[in-house]
Amino acid sequence: MVLVEGVYTYTPASMALVVHKYGGTSVADAARIRNVASRIVEVHKGGDGVVAVVSAMGRRTDELLALAQDVSDRSHPRELDMLLTAGERVTMALVAMAIEDLGVPATSFTGSQAGILTTGRHGQAEILEIRAGRVRDGLDQGKVVIIAGFQGVDPNSRDVTTLGRGGSDATAVALAAALGADRCEIFTDVDGVYTADPRVVASATKLDEVTYEEMLELASAGAGVLMPRSVEFGRRFTIPIHVRSSFHKGEGTWVKEETMEEAVVRGIAQNSDESKVTVYQVPDTPGVAASLFEPLAAAGVNVDMIVQNVSHDGTTDISFTVPSVSIATARDIARGVAASVEAGGVSIDESIAKVSVVGIGMKTESGIAARMFRLLSDQGINIQMISTSPIRISCVIAGDRVDEAVRTLHSGLGLDGEDPQ
Ligand code: ADP
Ligand code: ASP
Ligand code: MG
Q1: For the segment 133-188, what is each residue's pLDDT rounded down to a tens digit?
Q2: pLDDT at 380 > cutoff 70
Q3: Which of 2, 173, 211, 283 fits as disulfide partner to 230, beta carbons 3.0 to 4.6 Å?
Q4: Cβ of 85 less than 6 Å from ligand 2
Q5: What is the CATH number of domain 8-189?
Q6: How far is the CA of 390 from the centre of ligand 1 (A)?
Q7: Which of 29, 160, 190 is nearest to 86 (CA)?
Q8: Ligand 1 close to Cβ of residue 25 (< 6 A)
């Protein structure tokens, strides 16, 4: 994203400019919308400028997706984006009405009206630039500005686009960067970022702070509380992100450059939305991997882990994981390549899951991988694939064991507060 218009300084200079974001559960019904409005009004009355990004109400996006499937089983990327953006548009207007009822002027804008320019990739568009003139004008007039999350416009086709699931987080942090806001507050249905998904691990604890780097790894590994791209924007433009509850006033989790404490293991994430493809008995010659991964890349399939086994008799097996939504494309490409290089065949496993352990202290402390593998093996959980980054270790395991794996690792790695060592 380019900040073409430079950094905007909200006036009067002594006051802060904050971007709020309210997720689906936080605006699920009329009472919650009025609650959100009163939170926003309170900040506005305190003298700060507020821009609020809102998501579709409750599970509206899922309902619209299901409705589209009921009407047509073909893919209609442009029309699907037209449909989905309507969800956020409903919320923005209702929140603006509720704010006006509290005696504060408010204006709502769609992503396009707010100047959010994106690539043209429907369903997965990326924010390129924000021309925030109308948003600034609204703030200068003393209004609260409400913006529909998760959407923008492709300046070439002038069609509306969506940013991918969870995209309102990206809208909020990108706007905070474009407006030079002091911080971005993500209001959600949990009290902050936890050491694991609190719906899975009852003993998970809320983190007071987490680095951008760790949060990016956690989010990319499946911790759905923040969309990974929002963390990327936060890191790139150094926007402090505060993840907190929309239901009470308590402090949440600050996502920032550095934290007071360097955790060896900060948290555990899980992802059950990937599938595994294995191409058997591939000739072990130069260029074969390229011939498989080039067409996958060209088709926009986002390959995550790749494992190539040791060669026997001049052939090898190559396994890789892809998002389950791309499995049909990946399977067709893999089958085509397998036939052309005379490989043994292709198998698909849609019932895998990935469990990841993340912590900045792993850069210096060795041994976490060994502990992780031992804990999984003591539980009789087989590791199918492994991948690492300097601050993350991920294992692919059977999908039906993933909650158990997360709980085992959470307690075995000391996150329950009872370090076994
Ligand atoms: P919103 O609609 O507000 O954007 P999401 O459903 O996208 O909310 O994200 C919040 C959810 O993320 C929580 O309800 C929780 O189940 C899930 N989650 C997954 N991992 C974590 C984690 N490490 N910490 C907190 N929440 C998590
Ligand atoms: N409503 C969209 C979704 O459900 C975007 C968002 O909530 O962030 O994915
Ligand atoms: Mg979300």
Answers
A1: 999 999 999 999 999 999 999 999 999 999 999 999 999 999 999 999 999 999 99
A2: yes
A3: 173
A4: no
A5: 3.40.1160.10
A6: 25
A7: 160
A8: yes
